[in-house]
Each structure stands twice: as C-alpha cells, then as structure tokens.
Amino acid sequence: MGFKIQWAQLSPPRILVLGFASIILIGTLLLMLPASSRSGESLALIDAFFTATSAVCVTGLVVVDTGTHFSVLGQVIIAVLIQVGGLGFMTMSTLVAIAFKRRISLRERLILQEAMNQNTMEGIVRLIRKVVAYSLILEAVCGTLFALRWSLDMPISRAIYYGYWHAISLFNNAGFDMFGDFSSLTGYVSDPMVNFTAMFLIISGGIGFVVLSDLVDYRKTKKLSLHTKVVLLMTALLILLGALVIFIFEFTNPRTLGGLNWGGKILSSFFQSVTPRTGGANTLDIAGMRQATQFFMIILMFIGASPGSTGGGIKTTTFIVMVGAVIAMIRGREDIVFFRYRVAQERIFKALTITLLALLFIIAVTMVLSTTEDSSFLMIIFETTSAFSTVGLSLGLTLKLTTFGKLLICFTMFAGRVGPITLVYALGQKNKKGKELYRYPEGKMIIG
Questions:
Q1: Which of 90, 201, 268, 301: CA 20 to 30 A from 432?
Q2: Which among 398, 311, 418 has a CA at the least distance from the CA of 354?
Q3: Residue-by-residue DSSP string for 45-113
C-alpha cells in the first residue's frame, strides 16, 4: 500500500523516466538469455544493457551486430523494445487499457500529455488511438513494400521477416538493421524502392503524430495548424539544404558519391540528408565522408526530428524559434511571427532552455569521453550527438568504447529520449508555487 501511495505521488516526468528505465532493465535481462544469441551463450551484461538502451531509446548505436549475433528471439525482442520505445510505454499502456475498456484516469492523461509533449489534455486519448493506428498502418504498408523488393534477393519468408522488422525500426527512427557486418542499407545505395520507402518511414515517424493527424484530417478540415505548417516547412528546408550540402561536399569523394552515377549521387544525398534527423540508417559509408560533411551531419543530428514524434534532437520547432528570435532581433522587432501568428514569450524561453541544456549536455559528455576514449575529437562529438539525438549514425567509436564509455553513452541516449527538461524535472524539484507574487525592478546590462 505504501508503495502505491509513493508511486501515485510521483510527478509525470518521474513516472516517464522510471517507466523507460524499467523497460530497459527488462530488455537487458531478456537479451542476456542464452536463447537470444545465435551462439547459445549469454550476452555480457554491459552489452545487453547497451543494446536494450539503444532499442528503447530508438537510437541504433550497437556494440554487437544485430543481424549476426542475435537469434530470431533476440531480434524479435529488439523489435518489441523499439516499438515500445518509439511509441512510448504510456501509449502502449493506454492501448491495453482501451482494449479492456478501462477508463483513463486524469492522472494518466497528465502523464500522456507529458509523454506526447502536448500543451493540453484535450483529445489526448483520441490522439493515442490515432498514434497506434497510423503506426501499424504505415509499418504494414512499407513492410510489405520492403518484402516485395527483398523477395528478389532472398527466400520469401526471410524477405517478409526482414521487411516488417526494418519497417518497425525505420518508422520508429531506430536505425537497427539485420544485414550483417554493421552494413545498414549500403547494399541498396542506388535502389529507388528501398531508398524512397525508407525515407518515407523516417520522415513519417519524425514529423510527429500531431502533424500526421492534421494531414489525414485535411480533407475534412481544409486547414492545417500553425504547428503542422512550421514542421512541414522546416522538414522540407532541412532535407533540401542537407541534400545540397552533402551533394556538393561529397561529389568527388571516391569513398562515398564519387563512384556513383548522377541518379545514385542525388538519391544518396537525399537519403543521407533525411537519416540524421533521426533515422540512423545509411546507404553511404559515414566514416568515409569528408570531415566538413561529418560536421554538417552533427548539426542536422542536433536539430533532429519534430515534437511528439519517434525522433530525438532539440526538435525542428525549437530550432526555428531560435532562428526566428535572431531574425527578430536583427530587424529590431519584439515579436517572432510565423504564418501571421505571434510566438508566445513562454515558448521562446522554452526553446532557449532546451537548446542550451542540450548543448551543455553534449559538451560535457564530449569532454569526459575525450579523456576516457582514445579517439579523435570529431569522432567523439559525432558519437555523442548521435546518442543524445537518438540518431544511431556512427563513425566507429561505439565498437571501441570502454565500459565507462558505454555507460556514459547509455545515459546520453536515455537523456535524449526522455528529453533534457523532463530529465531535469524528474531529477530535481519543479517549483510548485506557480507565478511569482512580485517582480524585481528592471536592471540594465550590456549584452554583446
């Protein structure tokens, strides 16, 4: 009874943190089972913990090859962890409650609001139903397309298994693959069907379920919310800009685009522009890219996907609010305006807080890893950003991490998945007094 009272008194951020942590621990124990490995031997605790964390946090960084090390049972466990981690454990719990026709309590709605990063509880259960429906439909359709394509290269049963498994991984922006030798989708670098299907899954999972709902309902409503317009605009701009930069920087690189024809160069450039936000799959050798391209991909990873999605990063809306603040300051305007709507000051402060916390976190982890790991600075900051933004792209550092390095990267993935503000609220104590009853006099400071 005492435990129940204590659990009931936990804040929504703490419940989310403990919920994700519990799933990771369960996944670790399951992946350590001898039956989860092809060799029949139990996976080392640290490697099982790392894999479970990467799966639940839908990252994709791996210390053992998913396709060659794990048995079918192990691979299915990873797929389930990805699905639960991508949709969120509260979404899955709510789905079970709905299936058994149990009423969703006010407290559960508050937790769902926190988990889905919504401003209000209104329609939250309806949104959860849509989340599950959209996810299953998109994974089923794209999994079928993958299966049809891969049936040309492998037995039909294996093609179906691979198709739906990778559809789950890509829609949830996890980046895990089963092609062996850490190769990801490099064997299909110029294959239009595999590339377009994978990009569609990554983008669909990354724009957020609110945006998907808006797009589906557009035929009835004939209008899009401000949030949806901003997300679609930023997603399109980042993909186009990213593809252009990668195409220019890698055009003559023999290890990446150099050996491809024009169609392959353009297709690969777009895929590598989509995947840092935050798909994790790749069709080119990321380690073979020029340093300028790798640094640019760090920026794309840092921005990440959109709010209420399966992706990580500071989010596209946070980035555009920060850019809008800079433009407003340069133009001497007080308000940030998008599509004739003014952004509330509270949103600007939140965007600044998220960006600064994420930046400081990445800097701190990078500095620590620079002292514990024997690798270049660019490789370390690339891996750290990939972990925090739950991307999964790697320059090869993950395979060489020390035990301490693996634990630190695990914590980084976890922090990136639950969000820096949620983690701070969960570890600290949010001010419960509400608005301040008085304000201090305005002081003068010289800025810049």
A1: 90
A2: 418
A3: HHHHHHHHHHHHTT----SS-HHHHB-HHHHHHHHHHHHHHHH-HHHHHHHHHHHTTPPPPHHHHHHHH
Strand, helix or coil for residue 161: helix
Cis peptide before 53 (omega within 30 of 0): no
Which amino acid makes up residue 265?
K
Separation of alpha carbons 89 and 336, rounded Å: 35
Quote the mean pLDDT of the chain: 87
**CA-based nearest residue to 202, from 303, 273, 279:** 279
Nearest to 289 by CA among 250, 245, 241: 250
pLDDT attached to residue 5: 41
Does the pTM exceed 0.85? Answer: yes
What are the Cα distances from residue 186, in Å, to 29, 50, 78, 339, 448? Answer: 32, 24, 21, 40, 47
User: b/e per residue, 18-45, with b = 16+ CB within 10 A?
Assistant: ebbeebbeebbebbbeeebbeeeeebee
3-class SS of residue 337: strand
Give the pLDDT confidence score for residue 180 in this predicted structure: 86
**CA 113-114-116 angle, 5° bins:** 65
Domains of the chain, by residue range, sit at 9-426
Are 34 and 444 within 8 A, CB to CB? no
CA dihedral angle for residue 112, residue 115, residue 116, residue 120, rounded to 10 degrees: 50
